[in-house]
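Run log // design_07
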């Protein structure tokens, strides 16, 4: 049987007899080999954009992803100070992250080394977008951007596909591949209802493949989640999100690119202040030039005597605000409306500029 997918062609054969399958497929492969030798055309092992290896690993496919995305990350880096944060993030989400996730339900059981390489590429993109230095913790960057790790996103995608298969929203042959449902539950153990019983798998690569691994994820979900009325409801239950008010998001994106980056670095304890450099072993001590033991974000914004004049201007512009804390100056205040948050952000960034503490 020949299947055509746009510019891809695939051969398939089905039989209850394994010997028949091998015989037919081997014959077809021999004919293709003769044809390719005659016409000097090589065939690859890529199927619908996924590179398949004969040993069941995904190393070649992940290497292809990494090679393909490296040039896009390099372009993103060139635009770091040309475009604002919002547009840089849009480029990543629309053009780059899909390359990391194409057909990931199939290859998610890649080894941890390659999984980490993919995660590091996303981390690098996050650093470019936020302007945070290389010593910033990964969880800080993901918090700043509201991103999930690629590992978590792949788990959600696999569960979403599994939901569609289980609820007959996918080709029927896929449902026939699911393991049997546990039948020995009682009225006192309803949690096991709709659970799947995976057989024993000798190889870890098989155990971690799509159906075995995702059925394990599925078994850990609540009955209510498994019985969701729609895929939209199901996704909302497996990835609960804390909604950040739109004006707080704008707070994080406000200002000229370079001062916005400094603001972001202060917020994530990754600036060139002495304390931030000291804690990552880039400076011998955290002492401020004014004599204070620790030059951190709080000291810089609220206490350092070197910047009293600039601080007074900032505080006068915020005299309507009675509860100023360093957290509000860095993150905004969800209890205030859009316009008031922008006032805070503008005042802080003017202070940063007038202090001349950072190279910009």
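design_07 sequence
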């Amino acid at each position: 049987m020949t299947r055509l997918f746009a510019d891809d062609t695939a051969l398939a054969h089905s039989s209850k007899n394994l010997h028949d399958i091998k015989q037919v497929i081997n014959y077809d492969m021999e004919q293709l080999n003769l044809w390719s030798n005659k016409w000097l055309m090589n065939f690859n092992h890529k199927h619908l954009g996924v590179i398949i290896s004969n040993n069941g690993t995904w190393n070649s496919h992940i290497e292809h992803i990494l090679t393909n995305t490296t040039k896009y990350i390099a372009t993103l880096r060139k635009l770091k100070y040309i475009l604002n944060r919002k547009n840089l993030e849009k480029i990543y989400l629309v053009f780059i992250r899909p390359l990391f996730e194409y057909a990931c339900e199939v290859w998610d059981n890649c080894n941890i080394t390659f999984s980490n390489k993919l995660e590091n590429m996303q981390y690098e993109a996050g650093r470019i977008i936020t302007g945070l230095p290389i010593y910033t913790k990964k969880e800080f960057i993901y918090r700043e951007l509201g991103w999930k790790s690629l590992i978590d996103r792949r788990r959600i995608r696999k569960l979403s596909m599994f939901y569609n298969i289980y609820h007959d929203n996918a080709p029927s042959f896929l449902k026939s591949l699911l393991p049997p449902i546990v039948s020995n539950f009682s009225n006192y153990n309803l949690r096991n209802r709709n659970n799947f019983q995976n057989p024993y798998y000798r190889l870890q690569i098989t155990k971690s493949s799509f159906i075995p691994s995702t059925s394990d994820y599925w078994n850990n979900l609540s009955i209510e989640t498994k019985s969701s009325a729609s895929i939209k409801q199901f996704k909302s239950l497996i990835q609960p999100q804390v909604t950040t008010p739109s004006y707080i998001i704008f707070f994080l994106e406000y200002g000229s690119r370079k001062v916005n980056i400094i603001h972001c670095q202060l917020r994530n304890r990754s600036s060139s202040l002495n304390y931030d450099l000291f804690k990552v072993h880039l400076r011998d001590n955290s002492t401020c030039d004014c004599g204070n033991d620790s030059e951190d974000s709080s000291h810089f914004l609220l206490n350092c005597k070197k910047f009293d004049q600039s601080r007074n201007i900032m505080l006068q512009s915020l005299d309507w605000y009675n509860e100023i804390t360093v957290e509000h100056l860095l993150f905004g205040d969800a209890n205030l409306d859009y316009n008031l948050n922008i006032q805070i952000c503008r005042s802080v960034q003017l202070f940063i500029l007038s202090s001349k503490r950072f190279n910009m």
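The longest strand covers residues 2-5.
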